[in-house]
Amino acid sequence: MGHHEHNLAIFRGKLKFKSNEQKIWGVFIFLSIITIIEVALGIVKPEALMTPYISAFEGGFMATMANIVLAALIYMKPLNLIFIVLTIVKAYYITWDFMHMRDETKALRRMVVWTAIFLLCYLVLILLVEGDYIFEVYKNNYIKFDF
Amino acid sequence: METTVATTASQGGVWGGGNRPLRASYGKMMMWFFIVSDALTFSGFLAAYGFSRFKFVDAWPIADEVFTHFPFLHGVPAPMFYVAFMTFILIFSSVTMVLAVDAGHKMKQSKVAMYMFLTIIGGAIFVGSQAWEWATFIKGDYGAVETKGGKILQFLDTEGNRVAIGSFAESMQTTAIEQESSNGVWFMSGNDQTSYSFEEVKAGFLANENLLIRTQYLDADGHPTVLTREASVTKIQKDGRLVVEGANLKRNEYGHPLFADFFFFITGFHGFHVFSGVLINIIIFFNVVIGTYERRKSYEMVEKVGLYWHFVDLVWVFVFTFFYLV
Questions:
Q1: Which residue in B has a C-alpha nearest to residue A119's C-alpha?
Q2: Residue B266 CB partners (closer than 8 Å, separation 6+)
Q3: In a domain, B252, yes or no
Q4: Domain assignment present for B15
Q5: Which of B32, B36, B46, B55 to mutate to test the interface with A (most CBs of A within 10 A)?
Q6: Are B127 and B58 in a shared domain?
Q7: Is the same domain home to B127 and B157?
Q8: Which of B26, B28, B180, B213 measures 20 to 30 Å from A86, CA to CA?
Q9: pLDDT at site A47
Q10: Is the dihedral of CA B238, B241, B244, B247 positive or negative?
Q11: Which of A4, A127, A132, A138 to mutate to test the interface with B (most CBs of B within 10 A)?
């Protein structure tokens, strides 16, 4: 098996652990804190996070571009955005520290992560746009669905 | 088997199969390939869930009104607590797994065995919890009425509390005839009967002045729309068709049937992964105990099964977010 070199620093080197075992417990505490925050937000659902902070821009081409770039802030509740960001943070630490991605070569990391991220973003974008379109069709057509 | 583990490096040259692309052994690399493809499968499911949810975004059930139960706490609404508990169980079993991998690097057989055992226990608790969650979901809560258009009507009192159909339905002489195999196709039996018929629920609803109907459509604040008494009476008389109790693949008393379909499919597929993970962990556990990896001088198998186990945890993190939180 040889000697395993473990990278023992997390948070971009700001937090260094003395041993691999300590790092595992440190990451566990971090993941637990995030989960507790998620559950607390999910139960409380603070009023301030329930409506988007920015409303959609209106006007010409630039307004449309701005709506696309800032879509996550315009069309999503801040609460849901927080949930998704926290989920990605959790996924990062599970992959990097529990699955030892931190200790693999850069090429292996990129092979796994970018393949998934690229295909996923594409699929999610297409399906959500299409789903929203069908919703509009149901809503604005001349057939009654609520009976 | 020994050639498949890390000892291949000693066999020298590139053409002898001795090189390790990306400095990962064959087995680990293949596990990563599998994980990427499985991650894409799960993403496909979750993206399909998002698609269906966006299609019916104004009529989608609110998760913390659906999953409000906690074992042994009957009648106490505890939204989210049980899934939060399940999430912690799975994260903790990930921790014991990675501790087993770490002990394996240090060639400490008994420690690996102990941590593997704890991981198996955690996995078993998780699968059991999921079974309980399913059972509660299938059994249902308050019951509802389905309209001719397949929409769900739920019942509230004037204070806005949910009311179970059993508490107001009037019992009537039943006109339903039990289906028997002697006068039908052999595979048909009378199990589809709900505990109250639609006529009973309707009569009880009309007799109780303080009952209102809540539709599955959400208002501007994201709460289900509550009809006035007059509108409720018109609605149940004009559109009501049958009683729904609990959830299955066709009907769902909590709201849109697709919610139940995706719940069963995605958590079921994930639960199947956890189940197979537990089985694989048990096999590896026994291999550790009988000293297979001690003789092989490498605990890399523990590391590989660990990758799979962490992946299952990773998927749950996303399922938790998109099913229960968002």
A1: B40
A2: B42, B45, B46, B49, B319, B323
A3: no
A4: no
A5: B55
A6: yes
A7: no
A8: B28
A9: 87
A10: negative
A11: A127
Percentage of residues of chain A with pLDDT beyond 90 = 52
Nearest CA in chain A to B6: A1
**Encoded tokens for A117:** 């991220």
Closest C-alpha among B86, B82, B84, B118 to residue B99: B118
A43/B47 Cβ within 8 A: no
Q: How far apart are CA B92 and CA B89, in angstroms?
A: 5
Domain with residue B133: its CATH number is 1.20.120.80
Distance CA A3, CA A26 (A): 23
Per-residue tokens: B214: 């809540």
**Do residues A21 and A32 make contact, with C-beta atoms less than 8 angstroms apart?**
no
Q: Which of A50, A94, A127 has its CB closest to that of B48?
A: A127
B50 and A32 within 8 Å at the Cβ level: the answer is no
Please say if the pLDDT value at position B3 is more than 80. Answer: no
- What does the pLDDT look like over B288-325, one tens digit per residue? 999 999 999 999 999 999 999 999 999 999 999 999 99
| Domain extent for B312 | 2-7+28-140+258-325
| Domain presence at residue B47 | yes
> Does the structure show a pLDDT above 80 at A52?
yes
Please write the tens of the pLDDT for every residue from B29-88: 999 999 999 999 999 999 999 999 999 999 999 888 888 888 887 777 788 889 999 999
| Residue located via tokens 């996923």 | A120
Q: Look at chain B and report how many structural domains it folds into.
A: 2
pLDDT at A87 over 50: yes
